[in-house]
Amino acid sequence: MAESKPMRQQMEAYIRYLQDQIVTSLEQLDPNGPSFKRDSWIRPEGGAGQSCVFAAPVVEGDEARQQDTVLEKAGVNISIVHGTLPPPAVKQMRGDHNSMPLPENPTGGLPFFAAGLSLVIHPRNPHAPTAHANYRYFEVTEAAAEGKKDGEDRKIIAWWFGGGADLTPSYLYDEDAIHFHNTHKTACEKAGSPELFAALKKWCDEYFYIPHREETRGVGGIFFDDLNSGKHSRLPDARANTQEEIFELIQSLGNSFVPSYVPIVAKRANTPSTPYQRRWQLIRRGRYVEFNLVYDRGTKFGLMTPGARIESILMSLPEVARWEYMSEMGEDENSDEGKLVQVLRNPRDWV
């Protein structure tokens, strides 16, 4: 049997494939709209990537406004990078990944490799939900011996997969939430882990939580981190999964994103909406920004990494958001806005 390629190569090939699939599907939502801007870049410290970003063109006139498109802001980015993590980033990682066998005080930092896909989609219509997903592989290697170049022949001292997908609507449609969750549940089952979905859904609700608002960011989905060949305290499966088995799960979940989300946007993109509903959408986007900038581990880690590409890291932020002082919107439990807030304060199991 032929020897399999190193996981870093397998993951790179997969995220390049997945990016193309997702971007193509999103462009087909709006055939008359502009294509995603494909921006390939090189990281001077080591590695490269491609950002595929959609931003509706601005129409100039008496008052500048965006062209009417299905999507308002979206990005599907991949990065394949390597280099050395400085001590502050290692410290952050030790806190976030306390099950990893990382040195306490690495002299000069730790060599690393990371490959991942990250996306955020903000549709224009208030009835079409925002979505986020990311899938990543990370490994930390021993320091290179003197005279030895940076490469794949170093001993790997830690590796893991992480990621997930979640849905953030402004208006609650039960059937949309059920479809999104059920599609990811089926993906877990296809990967041979039928009991896994419930644990990943609970993990998602706990991670995407805004403490100062006492509400979740959205209606949930799946989230996981630190998946490696050891047992994980948060997961029900007691067996030790191999790297290839976890990679199969990653592919099953990644391949489920388009069927879980794109049909929802296609269904809601032309729903009639009012200025009042647009105002609520922008307030909800403000909460999205609050989570990403204050609590999201990936954003904080990215900003600590040398050579961080700020445009890619902050791609997740919407084009437009709103913060109102002491807003009354959503306080009436019987209103459409209030029905969403009740779910955000009391997460629901959708499947």
From TrEMBL:
Keywords: Oxidoreductase, Porphyrin biosynthesis. It comes from Marasmius crinis-equi. Belongs to the aerobic coproporphyrinogen-III oxidase family. The keyword Oxidoreductase applies. Homodimer. Its EC number is 1.3.3.3. Pathway: Porphyrin-containing compound metabolism; protoporphyrin-IX biosynthesis; protoporphyrinogen-IX from coproporphyrinogen-III (O2 route): step 1/1. InterPro entries: Coprogen_oxidase_aer, Coprogen_oxidase_aer_sf, Coprogen_oxidase_CS. This is coproporphyrinogen oxidase. The gene is HEM13. GO terms for molecular function: coproporphyrinogen oxidase activity. It comes from the Eukaryota.
